[in-house]
Amino acid sequence: xxxxxxxxxxxxxxxxxxxxxxxxxxxxxxxxxxxxxxxxxxxxxxxxxxxxxxxxxxxxxxxxxxxxxxxxxxxxxxxxxxxxxxxxxxxxxxxxxxxxxxxxxxxxxxxxxxxxxxxxxxxxxxxxxxxxxxxxxxxxxxxxxxxxxxxxxxxxxxxxxxxx
Length: 164
Known about the structure:
Layout: E1 4-9, E2 18-23, H1 25-35, H2 40-43, H3 48-67, H4 88-95, H5 104-113, H6 117-125, H7 129-138, H8 146-162
Helix pairs in contact: 1-3, 6-8
């Protein structure tokens, strides 16, 4: 079987990160799935071309996270997923193996009292209408709560009145 080469780019530009794979089709298939953390069971029956397309989507997504959003990719570890709970703070506490920093129990308790405390604080910290819009764009799920949306609208009106 002949050796082939596959190049997967993280973005369109020449300066973008590239991942290059060389070998037989079977070797590249295994290498691409391992490199991109793809579950072989979900890729079973797909052609090498389809696997490369899926890997390219992953690469573009990670590239977008890094460049457009300024975020960092964090890999998942092989930890058993937490069981669903109606209380997200309880689920987060159960997932932690210990106290991450001194005094964290009081932080968790205050969040239980007002689960919107964080986003309401972030709304209050905004000094421009654009900053307020970016906060909304990045946290839309939190804005489903009427109190959060009301605080966001009030802050927006106050900033517009102040000319910020």
